[in-house]
Amino acid sequence: MKILIVGSGGREHAIAWKISQNPKVTKIYAAPGNAYNKVIKNCENINLKTSNDILNFAIKEKIDLTIVGSEELLVDGIVDKFKENNLAIFGPNREAAMLEGSKAFAKDFMEKYGVKTAKYKSFTDLDKAIKYLDEMSYPVVIKASGLAAGKGVVIAQNRNEAEETLKDMMLNKVFASAGDTVVIEEFLDGVEISVLSITDSEVIVPFISAKDHKKISEKETGLNTGGMGVIAPNPYYTKVVEEKFIKNILEPTLKGIKEEKMNFSGIIFFGLMVAKGEVYLLEYNMRMGDPETQAVLPLMKSDFLEVINAGLNKKLKDIKIEWEKKSACCVVMAAGGYPVKYEKGNIIQGLEKVNNNSENEKIFFAGVSEKEGNFYTNGGRVLNIVAIENTLDEAIKKSYELTEKIDFKDKYSRKDIGTLYIPVSKI
Question: Are 372 and 337 in contact (CB under 8 A)?
């Protein structure tokens, strides 16, 4: 089989690594990929970025399966274009992709089908949005409705901060057109849980849970990032939480997918909040999460390609995904200054000190380039360092030991990935 993976980060490296374990896979193409093609057998980067260019390549090369990690291309309708040409592709069609592409659309969908979520209102008019702030209690959550690379959410602590945030998004266009529409919603104080799942539009099969760490600094402070680390499974995902998630979020989501005739095979990422004993949906993502994927896939015992094929063939109800009874911790090594201003092109040293062929330690390239046998930083988030151990404490300890073996100029990592600041018994 020839597989095409669309995207360029650590998520795509993890997908390529997992897919490559299937003996039927003879070639993997990455569009555009990064330097992980140098560490995965029979993997080749292709510099393609638009839906049409990727489609034409898939037709020419007779690609057997395309897996999409790019939210922009999903919203652009790449899945619809592939299906029109009878090509196998794993991901949501244009309509379903709007559950991620538009937070306003997603919140309206949740309300329509009874998905438990925070109270909200959407606005396209700045003056009306500012006036609505008078009705809110603080802190309050303000979201740019469109795609903003995981950075378009602000928790405003007071009225003045909220008004300035609205002006930044809607008037100053700090998130470009993503802020043309904003969602203002009540703040839920609790703990977050990520649940990746796979669907064939007939059933939704959850993966193991994960806990992302979004902020740049310890104790969840500072600017939002694409994710500074993750653990899996999430200790807060108790049996009670799972039951409430399935009843109040997963099942009504599936009902909505069926009634809206969003006929696709792909991933649904549920971003959950547990607050005061209740489970709420914060957001949908319609692709593998980053960096959740880098911690979840190493724990998957089942063949990921076979799981995907079950989804494409509407046979998910017949499969059971097997998981390692272990824990994973992924620590992100970032360039100094991320997520604002940072250097690229600094040489990375010590990669050979991590045994990437081991079952217990992995390096996934997030922003890495290669030249003449050397690897260089090529993004804000540079490396994902993953350890898999029998307990969470052991995985956390091992992942930080691995990061110490690797060096590049101004490297930065949070030091508290996996720390549970709220006891599980308190949620």
Answer: no
